[in-house]
Amino acid sequence: MLIRLVFASFVFVSCGFLVSVPAQAKPDERAQAIITKAIQIMGGDRYLHVGSQVGRGKYSLFQNNAVVSFQSFIDVIVFPDKERTEFRGDGSKTVQTNTGKTGWVYDGDQELIKVQTEKQVANFTTGLRVSLDNLLRGYWKGDAELSYVGRRPATLGKRNDVVRLTYKDGTPIEFEFADDGTPVKSVYKHTGADGTEVTEEDRYAQFIDVDGIKAPFIVDRFTNGSQNSRINYDSVEFNKSIPDSIFAKPSNPKELKKDLKI
User: Fold this and answer.
1) Do the beta carbons of residue 37 and residue 88 sit within 8 Å?
2) In angstroms, rounded to a whole number, what is the distance separating the alpha carbons of residues 261 and 55?
3) Is residue 233 assigned to a domain?
4) 183 preceded by cis ω (within 30°)?
5) First and final CA of the chain: distance in angstroms?
6) Which of 163, 167, 226 lies closest to 198, judged by CA?
7) Could you tell me the CATH number of the domain that includes residue 160?
8) In a domain, 157, yes or no
9) What is the pTM of this model?
10) 207-220: per-residue pLDDT in tens?
11) How many domains, the chain?
C-alpha cells in the first residue's frame, strides 16, 4: 500500500498497551487469505516490489469537525524504515527524518537541528507498526503474530473482515478490509495521559491507480471517534532513486532552508 502514515510520529501519543502477550501460534490461514486478497487489490507484485515512495500534498488539523490549520508536505520513504518529511505553512518549515531507531528534527522557526528523543523515535516505530505497508508487505514477520478477529459492522449495513497483528511486546494493531479486499482502516488502542483508554483509527479513502499500484490519496485520523487530522496527497511516485544523503543529519541548519529536490 501507498502510505505508512508518515505523520504518525507527530500525532501519536507514546504509551503502554493494555494487553498481554498471547501464546505462540501459527499465522491464521483466514487472516493470510485476506491479506493476499488485499495485495492483489493494491497491485499484486507491483505493490510488493515498491522500494521507495515520494508523496506530496496537504496535511490538515481538525477541531470540532472543522479545519483549523494545514501545511503542505513532501514525504520521502525508502522501505522499510527510512523516512524524511518536510512541512511548510505560514512561512515556517519543519523537517523530520528517521532511519530505523535514530532520527533528527529541524525547527525552521528557531533554525535548530535536534536529535530525536527516545519518545519521538518510539512514536515513529508505532507509526510503522500501524501502517498498511507494514502489514501487507510482511515487514512485521518475526516480530508479531497474525490472527483473524472476525467480522465487524461497517457502513450501510456492511461488515468488514478484521485481522490483528500482536507484537512480542503485547502491542495489538487491527486492520479492517471490505469484502472485495480493499483496506478500510487500521485501529489501535493505548493508554492516554490521564490513564483512560484511547482508540486511534486511520481511515483510507480515494484509492487511485498509480502505475499499476493502488494508493489511498486520503487518510483521516480519528481519536475516540472524532477526526483530528487528514493527509491528502496531490501526487505519489514510486521507485524513484533516493540518495542516502537526504537522511543524514546536516551539520548546518542553512542546508535545510532550501526545498528538497527529489
Assistant:
1) no
2) 13
3) yes
4) no
5) 21
6) 226
7) 2.50.20.10
8) yes
9) 0.87
10) 999 999 999 999 99
11) 1
